[in-house]
Please model this.
Amino acid sequence: MSIAELLDGIRPGPWTVKAACGSGSGPDVDDFHARAQAVQHAVSRFCFTYCSARTECLESAIQREALHGVQRHGIYGGLTATGRHDLAVRRRKAAREAEGAGSAS
Ligand code: SF4
Model:
């Protein structure tokens, strides 16, 4: 079972068939939850370099974490839990600013 299938277990999507982590040639499943930065960097590089489902994987993780209040952990879509949190915060801030700009005109 790939990381993508684990992640998308609640709501399986067709994108999981494109998951590079399901190919058996990438990092070990445990490495996707490693705490060592060197391992995290290697996994992230693998996702960005080889996975054509990276965007879907990232969006699925961010949605799941936001909607279900799931504790962030592991690397999905090439981003660590901190990276996904920072991205979600930046997106919310940008949405608020766009809303403010729209109401000011
Ligand atoms: S981005 Fe990484 S974790 Fe997500 S499906 Fe691709 S290889 Fe797996």
Observations:
- The chain has a mean pLDDT of 86.
- Helices lie at 3-7, 37-50, 54-68, 81-104.
- The chain has one domain: 3-104.
- The radius of gyration is 15 Å.
